[in-house]
Amino acid sequence: MAAPSIHVVETPLVLYALRRADDALILGHRLSEWCGHAPMLEEDMALANMSLDLIGQARAFYSYAAQTEAKGNDEDKFAYLRDVRQYRNLLLVEQPNGDFAHTVVRQFFYAAFADPYWRAMMKSSDATLAAIAAKSEKESAYHLRHSSEWVIRLGDGTVESHGRAQAAIDDLWSFTGEMFEADESERVLVESGVVIDPAALRPQWLRTISGIVGEATLAMPDTKWMQKGGRSGRHSEHLGHLLSELQSMQRTFPGVSW
Questions:
Q1: How far apart are CA 143 and CA 172, in angstroms?
Q2: Which of 15, 197, 216, 225 has the highest CB neighbour count under 10 A?
Q3: C-alpha separations of 124 from 3, 32, 67, 143 in Å
Q4: Of 242, 69, 56, 224, which Cα lies nearest the Cα of 132?
Q5: pLDDT by residue (tens digit) across 42-64?
Q6: How far is CA 64 from CA 38, 59, 127, 229, 242, in A?
Q7: How far apart are CA 250 and CA 41, in angstroms?
Q8: Distance between CA 192 and CA 179 in Å, rounded?
Q9: 228 phi, psi to nearest 5 deg
Q10: By C-alpha distance, which of 212, 192, 209, 54 is closest to 118?
């Protein structure tokens, strides 16, 4: 019999931790799909290492969510035994890898937000969140530098690479607005000084994005319409397929261990 989904008591702090953990887990899983398939050996290793960084961040947040909730759940149950609607990750991170340019641009958009976000979160009044942020910022700084260099290389490269990079920017742009939203649950934490308001980082993110896109001889999209829903559990069709693979072992053999 397949293992059933767990019940989660989503207090504001638990929900916050799960959202950030889900972002990291799902993006880390997406990057892991490149293992053995990247365009060169060095990039294969780089993507795998970034995947491990993100999964490490996910583990830290899942563990803190379990400690805060105190209902018997742990990092494995949060990762493997929740239904798709219980995941609260950004829609951006669940988008398929596509070609290499799509993976690079997706990573660039996310890292350009994550790096200043974790830097600001180091001042959180919550000591555990501040400590997780301090470790995550060191990793996200590398992720941003690495993906930025690739955006420039692809955009200012051949006609083919330029076209693919521009297509990736155009396709993924509408998923970026969700990064800067905060619902009522998160507002409680913002007002108490536990977390920062992500909307405050949008000007800095736009400067970073526009600077690199311009250097890459690419163009910024002019659309203002944005996709949303991931934070409230409404996802694209892609997440269900991803989770069916990610959770298959634990769902089929509940409690299995190496």
A1: 18
A2: 216
A3: 37, 30, 18, 22
A4: 56
A5: 999 999 999 999 999 999 999 99
A6: 33, 9, 11, 24, 24
A7: 31
A8: 20
A9: -160, 165
A10: 54
Q: Cβ–Cβ contacts within 10 Å for residue 185, how many?
A: 17
Contact status, residue 18 vs residue 65, Cβ threshold 8 Å: yes
Task: Count, in order, helices (H) and strands (E) of the chain.
Answer: 11, 0
pLDDT of residue 3: 81
Distance CA 89, CA 231 (A): 6
Give the whole-angstrom CA distance, residue 183 versus residue 232: 9
DSSP helix/strand/coil, 70: coil
* Cβ proximity of 143 and 111 under 8 Å: yes
SS3 250: helix
Element (H, E) at 114: helix 100-121
Rounded to whole angstroms, the Cα distance separating 246 from 219 reads: 35
Cβ distance 5 to 83 under 8 Å? yes
Tokens (6 digits) for 31: 């990057």
- Written as six digits, the tokens of 112 are 């350009």
- Interval 205-240: pLDDT, tens: 999 999 999 999 999 999 899 999 999 999 999 999
Give mean pLDDT, residues 159-174. 98
What token pair was written down for 141? 């700084």
- What CA–CA distance (Å, rounded) separates 158 from 153? 9
Cα(162)–Cα(150) distance, integer angstroms = 11
Retrieve residue 80's tokens: 């493997």
